[in-house]
Amino acid sequence: MSEPAYDLTPESEAEAAPAAAPVRRARVALIKRLADVVSLPSSRVNAFERAITSDLLVEILREASLPERERVSRRVMTLTDIPYELLRVLLQDEISVAGPLLEEAVIPDPELIACAAAMGLEHRLIIARRRELSEVVVEQLSQTGEPDVLQALLRNRGARFTQGALERVMAASRRDSLLLAQLLRRPELRPSQAYVMFWWCAAEERRIILQRFAVSRDVLQDAAMDVFAMAAEEEWSDPLVRKALQFIERRQRNRAAQMRSAYADLDAAVAAAETGMTRAIAQEIGYLCGLKPTTTAKIFTDPGGEGLAVLCKSVGLSKARLLSLWRSMRRPEHTSSGEVAPALANTLAAFDLMAVDRAQTVLRYWNWALTSALTPALLQAVREGDEEGLAQYSLPERSAYLALSAQSGR
Q1: Which of 78, 195, 267, 371 maximizes the CB count within 10 A of its CB?
Q2: CB neighbours of residue 203 within 10 Å
Q3: How confident is the model at residue 160 (pLDDT cuts 50, 70, 90)?
Q4: Which residues contact 140 (CB under 8 A, 6 or more apart)?
Q5: Which residues pair with 340 in a beta bridge?
Q6: Cβ contact 296:286 at 8 Å
Q7: What is the C-alpha separation between 44 and 117, in angstroms, rounded?
């Protein structure tokens, strides 16, 4: 019998050593051939042949050098159906291997999610910049809380946010003000979410919120006009109806509170504060404005004054009364050079910016979200800073948490 033309089983390591260089060249050639077969169109290779070839290629790639793995990645990146195991191995490799695929290849969501979970920041950044990102991938990426990844997601117009992911980025924006401007540009952002973000925004972002998201309630008022009479006939016995109609109605001042007040009206209470604002007077002003104590406290203790401007415009107080309140809280009116203090300038600009009805929408949302939502569990979360457990709460509950636990960046 004739001897075989080649022998793949050397008798000793010493005999194998001289063949090292040819084996390396053979490996390079074999990897290229296998990648070529995997890349063949379906008219040239059937699914089983492609799968077997891919499995063999994966085994070789586990021991292949970085340049060899990079070449395979570039070779298969244009395929629309890269075999599953091959794709996963390449995606969970060095960024020079995974990068071309993450940038250009057609990749199913489960593989993107697995890559984002298993790999590092560089991989997640490239994923976040892909032209199209589904909700489930954005959800996975948003859970990292990495500022660079969140920024990339917000800038990516092809990324589709779930409300959970958006709220996660909102929470992160309390600590990273760079996220705020991008958040306010997202089409998924609801007015109610913008009203909550208001509390930790700087002056420019607050202006955008009041200009873009302070909506009119004309449609709601027209639709519910006859419901007010029905609720009155039932003596306002349904708490859900009462709370909703309080949000919709046009009147902002609390007539019942005025009848019980020691002051003749809201203007008299504001005038009384001119000698010095006290907690009792502030609370009384809040009651006369139809606010709950939590909302009043949030407005009067906010380092900026735009919330105070919203309050005054909502209840029909003049700009002179707004200035009176500003002075009563001992806020600076001028800088050392004699110019109007920036905080006061922003407050007056906010007052001029809004119509009464739109200001009322913002104020009433604050009053709803910051008070009706304060369950014992939520208060505990506010005290403990429990962001992880927020998913169990309703929208107004989560809004209350975010606003009450906010640290203003002003």
Answers
A1: 195
A2: 18
A3: very high
A4: 112, 113, 116, 117
A5: 334
A6: yes
A7: 36
Structural tokens at position 53:
């070839």
DSSP collapsed to 3 states, 229-295: HHHHHCCCCCHHHHHHHHHHCCCCCCHHHHHHCCCCCHHHHHHHHHHCCCHHHHHHHHHHCCCCHHH
Query: CA angle 357-403-390, nearest 5°?
Result: 120
Neighbours of 75 (CB within 10 A): 17
What is the reported pTM? 0.75
Helix (H, G, I), strand (E, B) or coil at 91: helix
- Of 210, 103, 116, nearest to 156 by C-alpha is 103
Kindly state the average pLDDT of the residues 322-348: 92
Look at residue 340 and give its three-state secondary structure. Answer: strand
Cα distance between residue 209 and residue 211, in whole Å? 5
Question: Count H helices, E strands: the chain?
Answer: 27, 0
The CA-based dihedral angle spanning residues 392, 192, 410, 372, taken in that order and rounded to the nearest 10 degrees: -60
Identity of the residue numbered 227: V
Question: Quick check: 245 and 228 in contact, CB under 8 A?
Answer: yes
SS3 (DSSP) at 125: helix
Alpha-carbon Rg for the chain, nearest whole angstrom, is 32
Tally Cβ neighbours within 10 Å of residue 1. 3
Closest residue by Cα to residue 250 from 222, 283, 214, 211: 222
What is the per-residue pLDDT for 351?
A: 95
Angle between helices 147-155 and 121-128 (to 10 degrees): 10
